[in-house]
Amino acid sequence: MLRIRIIPCLDVLDGRIVKGVNFVNLKNTGDPVLLATRYASLGADEIVFLDISATHKNYNLEIDIVKKIAKMIFIPFTVGGGIKTLENIRNILNAGADKIAINSFAVKNPEIIRIASNKFGRQCIVVAIDVKMSSKTNWNVFIHGGRIDTGLDVVYWAQEVVRLGAGEILLTSMDRDGTKRGYDLNLLRTVSNFITIPIIASGGAGKVEDFARAYENGASAMLVASLFHYKELTIYNIKKYLKSQNIPVRMIN
Amino acid sequence: MKIKIAVIDYGMGNIKSVVNALHCCKVETEVIKSPLEIKNFDAIILPGVGAFSPAIKFLKLKRFDVAIRDYANCSDKMIYGICLGFQLFFTKSYENGEHYGLNLISGEVKKIETYKNLKIPHIGWNNINILDTQNSKKMFDTINTNELFYFVHSYYVQPKNLQQISSICNYGTNFCSSIVYKNIWGTQFHPEKSGAKGLKILVNFVKEVKLNACNSGN
Predict the structure, then answer these.
(1) How far apart are the C-alpha atoms of B164 and B184, rounded to whole Å?
(2) Active-site annotation holds for B190
(3) What would the mean pLDDT of A171-200 be, rounded to a whole number?
């Protein structure tokens, strides 16, 4: 049986891991290479690395850090931040990443999803979607690290990226980001009803029960950042709880 | 004895993680882009992510298809296909049409059927059932049945000869997750991305490569 995945996320700004609340007030929380290695040894099912400075400052992504991490971990490794060209994608994959996450640029140029997916295979194209609630049952897609409201409806955009060839969707609730109030279950349920590819839930994890709820509402994987960086929860504790609820997880000895 | 393994770069995505994993297993590894080079190695690995049709087209264009088939006929050499690389070993794939593969293994590559709320691609860690055969013992030495490996795929292989299967996985349906057939190994899952147990499979492969090279008196 397929296990649900617990995925630590490293948000990196100028080479250091940072984490904020609702996408702002970023705090420096450590060295990405050390942390990636530690999470892998503690039972992370995958690692996501997002260079959050890359898009809005036009920085080049930190390819050297990606190379270092790829040499140390032997679990799937996704890298995102400021991707604009096939060349960017090729460089990241050549640095040892397994998947790339694309966000802002895909909204402005959806064709890159199709082209990249044809070229590198849909399994390595993760489309990251940041959303904010616009009414009780609607969410708008935001880009540039949550700075710009595109006016796009999340259900429309999620279906569109599937059609274009995305392999997974990384769905982040900006309303819940860093708040520890739990994943936005309405959002997960709504989007997963309309698409057939796996969804990685992101934004809001606070306690072990939140992971079970996300799973029940259609998430195939859950992203975690601050909870792990600040050692408020461990991968082991989350998985132990999920296992006790008969939710399939990967325990490592 | 010292052996050398080649990882074939055919322009289809990330070979780097395979190279990193082999380095971690302390094997001399080189990335090669030309079929002329493969004779210098004790084993080749055909990695791969992406779609079947562009991959086989590229292999043919570069004359890798002939080279790999000749290589597989040398009993002192070994060959390992991962994910798409594994699928390319088969006779035929139905991914976006019908395409002929390398035909090292008789069989077909088919799409995973979607039903209920089964998400496609099959992405993540899934347990495999290791079959109790002499061949699968080589691949899964010191690895227990039901161990978890990392999968990412929308298509699966269906070998004609069921004796070649070394493990089975279930996702909506039972499918063949690996094969050991003569000097050919293949896994649908990614050993290079399956943590310590995945690396162990690569170590087991290296062990077989050494044995094989020794036995043929090199």
Answers:
(1) 10
(2) yes
(3) 96
